[in-house]
Amino acid sequence: MKKVTVSSPGKLMLYGEHAVVYGHPCIVTAIDQRMFLSAEKNDSGVFELNAPDVNVSNYSKPVSKIGNGEMPKGAQFVEIALKNVIRDKKISINGLKITTNSEFKSTFGFGSSSAATVCTVKALSELYSLGLSKKEIFDLAFKTVLEIQGKGSGFDVAAAIYGGTLYFVTGGKKIEELGLESLPLIIGYSGIKADTVTLIDKVSEKFKNNKKRLDEIYGEIEIIVENAKRALISKNFKQAGKLMNDNQTLLKELGVSIKKLDDMIESSLKAGAYGEKLSGAGGGDCMIALGPENKVLQIKKAIEKAGGQILEVMANAQGVRIEKL
Ligand code: MEV
Fold first, then answer.
1. Ramachandran bin of 184, using left for φ above 0, alpha for ψ from -120 to 50, beta for the remaining angles
2. β-bridge mates for residue 166, sequence order
3. CA–CA dist 213, 53 (Å, integer)
4. For the whole model, what pTM was predicted?
5. How far is the CA of 17 from the centre of ligand 1 (A)?
6. Residue 1 predicted with pLDDT over 90
7. How many CB atoms lie within 10 A of CB 1?
8. What is the Cα 257 distance to its own chain's centre?
9. What is the pLDDT of residues 236-245, one digit of tens each?
10. How far is 230 from 207, CA to CA, in rounded Å?
11. Ligand 1: distance of its center to the CA of 90 in Å?
């Protein structure tokens, strides 16, 4: 095989952000906006990357230098993933041309870096007949993300691989597909770009003299996640919404919400949503809401009135897949 195109979905955190970095569970859903990656083997001796969504065009270096020396920020996840697969699986590459294209902006917080990492590992698995299992793809992609970011639970990597809606424990200790049929989420984008590692550090700093309360909060979030898992499986969206509100109260105490997200949340609650919360690290990105079907339009309008942008995205999407051989 000379060329392959693969794709993987973006994600939205439903419950349990921050706590999941420290050994607790979370629930994440894959969304139907995808990252596409085409990889082509050749004999050029060169690795070449085009990733227009992250401003990388015609970046190239000798294959022997993959993972070493200078690399543009936008090339890091693909290049370090390549290095890790080459080393771990002991493959030799004569030349490789990779192009990525995303259906969503990297500023939404949908996990474009993790999706690109997962696509890279999957594409190599196909091109070099490695037959990697989902868990092997997870381990290689998560190792890559940790190498670059230093921190993170890997929930976004799991969503990109497994798809659907997952119950996930730190580092992939548990990855359970909930098998939901539908998930009527409303998504509002704040227009503000957030940086995950900065927010993880912000929480540690805020609670550096009160570890006891921080542990209590993470314990309370864990209970919310367990209850939310049951509520979602039994399609009790009213209860699932209430649990989002409870989770949001704790996220506010962690100090990761911001006024814009609070305004969007408050306004959708007034419009009749069952519940809502920020999704992800906080500090910007998106909020999510669950509401009765007959109130969806009012809820969307309310979010827009508070300055948010509605993203028409479906939850529970398919995980990484081959698009074209
Ligand atoms: C960021 O989207 C969610 C965090 O829990 C980080 C992570 O789990 O990797 C803050």
1. beta
2. 28, 177
3. 41
4. 0.97
5. 5
6. no
7. 10
8. 18
9. 999 999 999 9
10. 30
11. 31
Measured distance CA(175)–CA(153) in Å, rounded: 12
CA 46 to chain centre: 30
Q: Is the CB of 281 under 6 A from ligand 1?
A: yes
Atom of ligand 1 nearest to the CA of 17: 5
156 an active-site residue? yes
Are 218 and 247 a contacting pair, CB within 8 Å?
A: no
Selected catalytic residue, list 43, 139, 156, 285 = 156
Q: What is the distance between the alpha carbons of residues 221 and 254, in angstroms, rounded to a whole number?
A: 11
Mean pLDDT confidence for 223-249: 98
Average pLDDT for 270-282: 98
β-sheet bridge partners, residue 245: none
Output DSSP code: residue 130.
Answer: -
Q: What pLDDT digit, counting tens, does each position of 292-315 carry? A: 999 999 999 999 999 999 999 999
Residue found by looking up tokens 């698009």 in the block: 323
Q: Contact 120/78 with Cβ under 8 angstroms?
A: yes
**Overall average pLDDT of the 25-40 stretch:** 98
Question: With a 6 A CB cut-off, is 251 part of the ligand 1 pocket?
Answer: no
User: With a 6 A CB cut-off, is 196 part of the ligand 1 pocket?
Assistant: yes
Q: Percentage of the chain with pLDDT > 90?
A: 98
Alpha helices in 104-236, H assignment, sequence order? 112-127, 134-149, 155-162, 196-206, 211-233
Average pLDDT score over residue span 47-64: 97
Q: What is the mean pLDDT of the chain?
A: 97
- Is the model's pLDDT at 76 over the cut of 90? yes
User: Quick one: pLDDT at residue 32?
Assistant: 97
First to last CA, the chain: 8
Give, using CA atoms, the residue closest to atom 2 of ligand 1. Answer: 280
CA of 281 to the centre of ligand 1 (A): 5
The two most distant CA atoms of the chain are separated, in Å, by 61
